[in-house]
Write a structure and sequence with these properties.
two-stranded antiparallel ribbon; alpha+beta; flat
């Protein structure tokens, strides 16, 4: 009976700068999305620009509306200021030609940190 010894070490994932995916068809697009949601930058190449255009990301209208709510909160003009918990729990639908998942998540992480650091003022606004 043959046995297998695992002597090879797993790669150091912290050193991965960018993951390349060749082909933006069904499998390539899903693979790129999966890798991107794990926090790794992804570069996708395909011989067809149409295939690249079909890739999915966060719905642009939803992201833009939420970004505007966050902006209004920082400016003190929001009727319902966004809280750090609101950002942490925010979910966006996926859409074709949507915003890059990693970039939007990074923006939300930064907004959450800044909102958590803000102190409420006596008028209900934050400073």
């Amino acid at each position: 009976m043959a046995t297998m010894n695992r002597t090879a070490r797993a790669p150091d994932l912290a050193r991965i700068a960018t993951v390349g995916v060749v082909g933006a068809g069904f499998m390539g697009a899903q693979l790129a999305l999966h890798i991107a949601t794990r926090g790794y930058p992804v570069a996708v190449v395909d011989q067809s620009m149409d295939a690249l255009g079909r890739m999915r990301g966060y719905d642009t209208a939803e992201v833009d509306a939420f970004r505007q709510e966050i902006r209004d909160t920082f400016l003190g003009t929001s009727q319902r200021p966004v809280r750090a918990d609101d950002v942490r729990g925010k979910l966006f639908r996926m859409a074709r030609r949507g915003y890059d998942v990693v970039q939007v998540d990074a923006f939300c992480d930064e907004a959450e940190e800044r909102l958590a650091a803000m102190r409420p003022t006596s008028r209900g606004r934050r400073d």
